[in-house]
Task: inverse folding
């Protein structure tokens, strides 16, 4: 639980009682690499706090290719917010890319703890602020940067993470083909940039 | 204030006291059409709740064209979250597209009221959830829909709104050229779809 407690403490002023409250409702789960936590067509009843490992959310696009929506690593909450909040059928999949340990929190327990504890409610608000800012930046990059610039930016922002995921998945997340990614990487290796 | 009170009541269980608290810190402002609430290079110190009118946020892209990031109409909070939360220099502009009436809330007052009132904090968390869901849907559409499908989807989701904004701005928001938008509209007029 230490990892989650540290994360909460970083963003909200919580008491021992608040931490005990969230501890009482999350359960630890081990997910094997390649296993799914959510598949398209089902409702997403949980949020998952990643203790170790790496995940992706993706959907199968009209051309039959997997389009990655998000990645999640340690200290991230993974869920399909749309399905989780609106209790609707999900259009995405969530899959472990490495063996993962997560803390699982159900929708009903989430609703309970945010109504009981203002400090935990505040924690989740602050997390959402950060998520919304990241989304807005991503939308702006998609509109304003070339493939190469997006790749550079992503690498500079997430140097360790880039080493952990297959190249074709990074290409999918950034919205370009694996061939285009190879071309950029080759060019950079040649120029040493 | 009634419009804001109704909006808050819709998403959070607030008391008379909570409403009085937010009423005590917001101030009404009238913004003339074409005036800016925020310009690139400045810090965004406020959130604006739109009582009437329509706004856009945009940046000037590398080609010198205005790229629209978001629109805001009645019952929306407009701000640059990145700049507002992180107290950093903004990369976007916020401009009134019609004469607008807004309620203005400063960063320091926002921080105060969410720490004083759990119910208002909850209201802003729920709003952010909705915003994050909208962002995630938008990212998925950008990856998976053709220009025509995005246009149809936007029209069906926001029929009244589409009538209020110039065609070239809608094109910018949706990420295609005005010529492409004209082509789609002409085709639809011909086929009656």
Result:
């Amino acid at each position: 639980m230490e990892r989650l407690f540290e994360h909460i403490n970083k963003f909200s002023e919580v008491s021992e009682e608040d931490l005990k409250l969230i501890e009482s409702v999350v359960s630890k789960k081990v997910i094997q690499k390649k296993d799914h936590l959510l598949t398209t067509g089902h409702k997403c009843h949980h949020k998952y706090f990643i203790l170790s490992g790496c995940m992706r959310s993706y959907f199968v696009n009209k051309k039959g290719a997997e389009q990655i929506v998000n990645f999640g690593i340690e200290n991230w909450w993974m869920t399909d917010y749309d399905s989780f909040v609106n209790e609707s059928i999900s259009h995405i999949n969530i899959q472990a890319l490495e063996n993962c340990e997560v803390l699982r929190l159900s929708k009903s327990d989430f609703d309970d703890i945010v109504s009981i504890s203002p400090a935990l409610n505040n924690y989740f608000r602050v997390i959402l602020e950060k998520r919304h800012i990241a989304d807005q930046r991503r939308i702006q990059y998609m509109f304003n940067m070339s493939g190469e610039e997006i790749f550079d930016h992503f690498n500079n922002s997430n140097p360790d993470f880039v080493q952990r995921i297959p190249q074709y998945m990074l290409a999918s997340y950034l919205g370009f083909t694996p061939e285009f990614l190879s071309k950029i990487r080759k060019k950079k290796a040649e120029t040493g940039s």
Summary: The interface with chain A takes residues 59, 61-62, 67, 69, 81-82, 85-86, 91-92, 114-115, 118, 121-122, 124-125, 128-133, 135-140, 142-144, 175 of chain B (CB under 8 Å). The mean pLDDT of chain B is 93. The longest strand of chain B covers residues 46-52.
